Amino acid sequence: MQIRQVAIIGAGTMGASISVAVASAGYEVLLRDVSVDALQQGLQKIDKMFQSLVRKGLAEETAQRHRARIKTVTDYSELADADLVIEAVLEKIDVKTAVFRELDRSCKPSCILGTNTSSLSITEIAACTNRPDKVVGLHFFNPAHLMKLVEVVPALQTSQSVCERTLEFARSLNKLAVRVEECASFLVNRLLGRYMGESLWVLQEGVATIEEIDKAVTDYVMPIGPLALRDMNGADIGLAVARFNFQEYGERFRPAPLLEAMVAKNWLGQKTGKGFYLYDPETKKRTVPNGSIAELILPSSTPPAAFNPQRLFLPMINEAFLALQENVCAAEDLDPALMAGLGMRRGPLELAEELGLANCLEQTEKLFASYGERFRPAPLLKRYVRAGRSSILKREGQLAAASN
Predict the structure, then answer these.
(1) Would you list the DSSP string of 223-253?
(2) 28, 87, 151, 319: the active-site residue
(3) Whether residue 120 sits in one domain with residue 230
């Protein structure tokens, strides 16, 4: 079945952005929300996105043609002809399952039901429908109309043909579509969580300052530092994700007390004007580091070691080997996904090869001896080193998709 009409459920920021991405690829879009007011707000967001694209060089007539493909509806019955639905509502399982029960009743039997969840169980969502074989995760990265990555995540029940058609659809949007087996936080956010979490432990130990951490990683491989990124996304959101991953994966994802303390003080970042940095109340632009963070730094009985940004990437590299060990994704997809999803200039597997696999293991084992479970080496990394391997896979042409 060819996909012609796509329904987007939820006219918030993510739903609006997905609508722009889908309409710009030539698909007819039905944007659904609970009220006319919610839809009007969504259309205002969509218009601003198209205006921004025009300022960046998109022809005005092209933008108008894409915009004309987006129609709005408030009733699920109006989705009867949709070939694919992408749900982008509140990230709560009870809200999403309620939506999927309605979609299951209203959409034609052949319609694929997709969810844009970034972490919730696709299998649990699929199980609430009478078509679990046609439910799949379609995790767009924000902003969806600009970011290149889509993680396609089959539920336990999803048929192979539905997964393949969903991958083809995502690629038709000019996206890098990567199949990711279901696990907490999927692939990119799972690996990101280890790196982001370690940045907080480094700051809390007094190993480096806020500015030193952010500058070191941007000089090394990232487009933005982890602490500036945490301020952008919100410490409260970061803590909720960290707690979820800790619950699912255990000790290596334990949230740093520093993050708990910042949320308790309402130092959430840009949205409260104070996080790791201070923000101008008018422009919301970052000004200087938050000097009050010093009161949250825990005293240490041992002098801190010199900061090397590699300490933040060793947990990411180790998690990458754990993900490969679990067959979460194909090895050749891992670096392109991290580069497309996070803007890394080199992915974690390339970093591992650059540092040397044996050296990665040696450094991780030293940190494991000092810090415990956060650095327990992945068995697959040990196997590669014991086999004398210096690389994970052939790299010729592997990264081309991430740079296109």
Answers:
(1) SS-HHHHHHHH-HHHHHHHHHHHHHHH-GGG
(2) 151
(3) no
